[in-house]
Amino acid sequence: MGILHPIVLEASLHETLWGGRRLEREGWKKLPPGDVVIGESWETEISTVALNEPYAGRTLGSLVEELGPGLLGQQAMAIAGQRFPLLAKFIDANDKLSVQVHPDDIYANQHEHGKLGKTEFWYILDAVPGASIIHGFKAPASRREVQKAIEDITLEKLLQDVSVSAGDVIFVPAGTVHAIGNGIMLYELQEYSDITYRMYDYGRLTATGTPRELHVERALEVSAYDRSPHIKMQPLPLPSGEGYRDRCLVACQYFVTRELIFEQDGVPHGYMKSKTGGSCIILSSLGAEVMVRYGDAFEYGEKLTRGRTMVLPAALGDYYIQGSGNLLLSYVPAPNDEVRRLWEEKNGGI
Fold it and tell me: For the segment 173-184, what is each residue's pLDDT rounded down to a tens digit?
């Protein structure tokens, strides 16, 4: 196979009814000109194209097919199979999203042609005063009660509305009825799945005057009707190093996400050395300007800048990161992953 290299990706931008221009206004992305409103930037979509050599111009999906376990890692393949396991996104909610729910792996496999379900988490990057999300119900509800509220366009009376601000970490397991409110910018990581059942859209109409498509029956089949026991997660501080701090934001069987904060406090740059293992690693810059060095003598390097995402193949081996700013690092954990165990203890055994 030869030496593997990090893959710097050109994200795919998605126009939505509820999007805006904030991703460009705040220096995250370059958006199409004009009045096009972009709601989502998909960082690791399999159609995204590599920007760096020797992969430049190749899609992430084609690299998965060619490099297989060397890119994905055995642990990632144990969870997701021969496909890229996780989809990272930046989301600009200029208006509120519809109320929706995602199935778990079992339901998706049986009813959606072998696809994965979708458990996800949100890291709130910014929120206007009073911004909120929906996460489950105010009190336990019955399927019939929810169905009637959808028909009567009164479902929001049953839903749990939670105010959010920058720095909040929201875990959204499959089956959780949820929605992102307006005025929120966030980073999302999820199982690689495109299955969304739109349950409710507040009676809104499209530009042509028709209601948006709903998927009520399937949404009702997969929803959890209890009140959400956990919404805002407690990050877990981890041992840090020279010029950087490390903490785990969220952990579950599908992903672990750590936030690395590289600081120039008494040293030229923050510096972290590590090694890849059973899973590919997703690095997303939340403003970080870093260099990722790799190779037998660390003779190779790739730069990562604000709003960009890079994938480190599982077989990359030793690497180090040097620079400044905030960086998210995500991977598929092994069953005995110590960071996951400690995070779950701190957050009540989720």
Answer: 999 999 999 999
